[in-house]
Fold:
Amino acid sequence: MSAFAGVRIVDFTQGLAGPMAAMLLGDYEADVIKIEPPGGDRLKDHPGYITWNRNKRILTLDLANETDRQKARDLIALADVAMFDHAPGGLEALGFDAETLTQAHPALIHVWMPPYGTTRAWAHLPSHHSLLTALTGVAFRQGAYADQPIHLILPLCHYGQAVMGAASIGAALYERTRSGQGQAVTVSGLHGMSEVTGPVKMLAGPPLPRGQPLGASPSYRLYECADGQWLFLGTLFANFYHKAVEVLGLGDRWLDFVADPALARETLKAVFLTRPRAEWLELFLEHAVPAAPVGSREDWFASDCVAEAGLRLTFDHPERGKVHMPAPPARLSVTPASVRGLARPLEGDPGWAPRPAPERRIGEHGDQPLSGVRVLDLGTVIAGAYAGAVLANLGADVIKIEPHEADPFRSDGGGFMAYNRGKRGLGIDLKLPAARELFYEMVRQADVVVDNYRLGVRERLGIDYETLKAINPRLISCSITAYGRGGSRSPRPGFDPLLQAEGGMMAGQGGDGEPILHTIPVNDVATAGVVAFSVIAALNARDRTGEGQEIITSLMAQSLTFQYGEVTTYEGRPPNDPGDRDCIGVRALHRYYECANGWIAIVCETEVEARGLAGALDLELGDARAALTAQRDGPLAQALARALARMPREEALHRLRQARVPAAPAIRGVEAYESEWLWDERLFDIWDHPRLGEFISVRSFSDFSRTPAGYIRPTPDLGEHSAEVLESFGIPPGEIESLFATGAVFGPDAVVARMSKSARPGDGGAALATI
Structure:
């Protein structure tokens, strides 16, 4: 029996985000009934539909029909969770809004996942990733050669919305076991964008630079080799970079390279062109230098490496034949996920009998969904650290544990501040016996431990799962590695771009041209969301079993998670949309266009929309059906570009809006902080760091009607709360004093020494990878 066995979900959502959120819960044995309109899900022909709706039963209902609406009401009355993705106003018209349904069913968790936000502004737009990234400034934050928005080939914000939808539903279910009450949960497209690309701005600091398409730092960059093949050099930290320079035969130039990154970049570019890629990769592997080849997602998903890790599943589809899809992205040792079958029609009675309302547990109700959950956070850099921040946003007490040398990603930059907000800081040297014993005492009182150590480090430190389980059998231990804990690659070091490269993301974005580094650290943020969801799943399981468990996941697993739809494959499947150098879109009627004073995004997918576009801009369209597949840089695109270039942006948007053509302004990243709509949507939060001053960053990754999510603490300095944390764990004052005296524990004074160190080689690439 898995984590959500017995949970009943009625899923009214379509497309990617909502169905995938329900899928993640269904993988842990939630019983999901998906309600589809008579014409089917709007993405029913997308290959990803098969994966996003696995383990579900499908029921066709016409919600415009009162008889079918009553059938839907009857199902909702028996469910634990009801999920919707209608635009603002749509649920009220049906009588399925949160207020109506939660009043009728107090234990119901009502989940709303609108494509943009919760207000009526832009509510008329159909769900499109290009429009969401345009409206939020994300399209202008991707590294590019030209000063233009970039079309992201992967719908990353929709995937982020899916993962946060699943995590938030799990958190609401966990809270319900304490309060006995349901509530309304909202996870909009803006929440998904917040988790994936979370904008952050230091009000007193300079604006962050825009990333470069190949990577800004010589140590963390794409390089072309002698055979025309590309690799990514992933030496984020100085020790790896120094070793790479020596392997390249340039050890005597090390100090020159540190002093002059531009010199290093040009020198390395020339050296890589002297040998074929395979030779460089063999050398780097021999010397444990992080590097990876650029390849296609199709080859990656079909590789022995993915199969060896158990990340590829195969099913027989009644129409498509053999279908290959990614496996669940994390492994829970006691209540594992499973894919039991593809979507199937609901035939007859669903088998849901009425149940008594859940009882409230006296004294366990908190102010936030995860109130009372204690997390010992050993995570570093992005993936591990950010997972803790997501849990903190949901109300967990997350304690960031760092050694004297600190998280190697620690800085005063916006990335570190965003990925570590909401925690308390504890400085501890786990190599010392006294510190290890202290950690064991904290484990006795903790609920969760999260780490992203390389293979074998937990065992050397004496904090592996078996050791911790013996101390606290209810503990949930989650460990993240680059390549998993089984197989030939498991000992290797790894960073997000290595999986971007080998997992096909860079080649997909670059198309037939050179590969492109995603400015968004795709696999890191995917891992953070998956870890948060997996921990919450394990907390729900523990409520039923009384038992903790180990969670294992990897960056390699996440190289598929945010490509579920793109890697799902079968004989004759349609190809994925190709990218391009400074990709401006995929077709003439699905791309960005520059107006006289700014950019807009246009996405037309029907002949009616195509004809409306032609009429709004006084253009000769010809065959509307053919126009929908016209090339992104062909004659039609050129005519549209000429017409719009002469027109102010507001006039163009007004005309298109009047013609019911899906279009939106493509704002620059810095404009997002000045967008009245985004502030009205409560996307941002202004908060104060005691040492650095004011920041603007995202407020939350979901909203709850009764137990609001959100940060209650700023980002901690190194060891800032050491004494406070130990006191909260009941450590006697005399013992605390002794731990400080011996150096087993240290406090905020350590930050002075840390901040005085010079920047590490590779910092520039790391910073740009987090903008």
Remarks:
- The CA atoms of residues 443 and 762 lie 35 Å apart.
